[in-house]
Amino acid sequence: MKKFAAVIGYGGMGGWHTQHLLKSDVFELAGIYDIKEERRALAESRGIHAYATREELLADPRIELVTIATPNDTHEEIAIAALRAGKNVISEKPVTLSMESLERMISVAEECGKIFTVHQNRRFDVDYLAMKQLHDSGEIGDVIRLESRVHGSRGIPSDWRGMKEYGGGMLYDWGIHLIDQVLMVLGWDVDTVRCRMDHITNTEVDDGFQLEITFKSGAFAYVELGTYNFIPLPRFYMKGTKGTALITDWREETQVVKCKHWHESEVLPVETAAGLTKTMAPRDSVTVDEYRLPRPASDVHDYYRNIAQAIDGRATQLVTHEQMRIDLRLIQCAFESAERGETVSF
Questions:
Q1: What residue spans of the chain are helical by DSSP H?
Q2: Strands, sheet with 3-8, edge to edge from the N-terminal-most edge strand
Q3: What residues contact residue 31 under an 8 Å CB cut-off, 6+ apart?
Q4: Which numeric CATH code is attached to 123-299+329-345?
């Protein structure tokens, strides 16, 4: 039997959640609430029930799950109210804006015995899944370096995302996704963090960043987000002890070059503008295999299927409290590093 769910906040992501819940095989959408009357009217015009108040929504005994899709600075207050009303809660990312706030939310969830988690839908991105599968397979050896980039050229999205008081900026908006992805690939044993932020189109919040993460394992991640890049760099680049992998664009397959023989008996030098070089001479089929990996299958609604199972005690929530802590702590370290202009210890 399907469980009833409701969405608080009927903007861009709120609309995304309602559409998925309307088609869900594990949840039935009870309705939405938004503080703006015109948003509630829009939902009603689309055949979606709109609660007149948040209190009315939280008082509906049918609802087992509340998804929060409001500006970042409001998540804590809404989540705690929903938890105390006996609802399980999904918060849109970032879950909140400080470690102290997150700990309060986790504490109330544990006190109430309810599921509390954050929506990390980009764990279902096919390009990320391809990198994770390649890493976990060991096909190109131990991964030494992972680079993740998302480049656009339209600046920060309009509305509250350009305002500091609401938790705007691209580190919170996209950074939390990209950080979570590289941690899912390389592990959660973060050692140091260094970050530089861009303010090309917006002086109040970051409109891009370059983030370096070192791990206690010795691995290294470089994460870059740009909103003023008219020629994008590759989406993913992975370097292992036995080869290299590249995804140029999220719509493309993974390109792999795997080393099968380290040395050739005779390396022919190549001529560059300033002279000959053997060091940078290209490889050939004698020493490397070149191939492409098919794109993995993915269904983003598996996130909600997991939550339904977790509510019944048949699964652990995909995004755990400890993962939420590490993701947010890394964000805070990135802000600290950018402000101080130096590497900070995690």
A1: 12-22, 37-45, 54-59, 75-84, 99-112, 126-137, 170, 176-186, 302-311, 321-340
A2: 27-33, 3-8, 63-68, 88-91, 116-118
A3: 6, 7, 43, 48, 49, 50, 51, 57
A4: 3.30.360.10
Using alpha carbons, select from 263, 300, 261 the residue that is nearest to residue 279: 263
For residue 89, the cross-strand partners are 66, 116
- Rounded distance between C-alpha atoms, residue 223 and residue 346, angstroms: 16
Sorted by where each begins, the domain ranges of the chain are 3-119, 123-299+329-345
Residues 6+ apart with CB under 8 A from 150: 174, 178, 224, 225, 226, 235
Q: Is the distance from CB of 298 to CB of 125 less than 8 angstroms?
A: yes
Tracing tokens 């993460």 back to the chain, one arrives at 213
The C-alpha atoms of residue 239 and residue 140 are separated, in whole angstroms, by 8
Quick one: how far is CA 150 from the chain centroid? Answer: 12
Please compute Rg for the chain using Cα positions: 23
Nearest one of 303, 299, 312 to 3, comparing CA atoms: 312
Q: Which residues contact 72 (CB under 8 A, 6 or more apart)?
A: 92, 94, 96, 97, 166, 167, 168, 172
DSSP state of 165: G
Q: How far is Cα of residue 196 from the mean position of the Cα atoms in its chain?
A: 19
Asked whether this chain's domains 3-119 and 123-299+329-345 adopt the same fold, the reply is no
How, if at all, do strands 190-198 and 254-259 pair? Answer: unpaired
CATH homologous superfamily, domain 3-119: NAD(P)-binding Rossmann-like Domain (3.40.50.720)
Other CB atoms within 10 A of residue 165 CB? 12
List, in sequence order, the alpha helices (H) in 23-160: 37-45, 54-59, 75-84, 99-112, 126-137
**Nearest residue to 185 (alpha-carbon basis) of 124, 254, 244, 132:** 132
Q: State how far the alpha carbon of 53 is from the alpha carbons of 15, 17, 34, 35, 60, in Å.
A: 18, 19, 8, 8, 11
Prediction pTM value: 0.94
Sites in the chain below the pLDDT cut of 70 = 264-268, 270, 276-278
The neighbour count for residue 222, using CB atoms within 10 Å, is 15
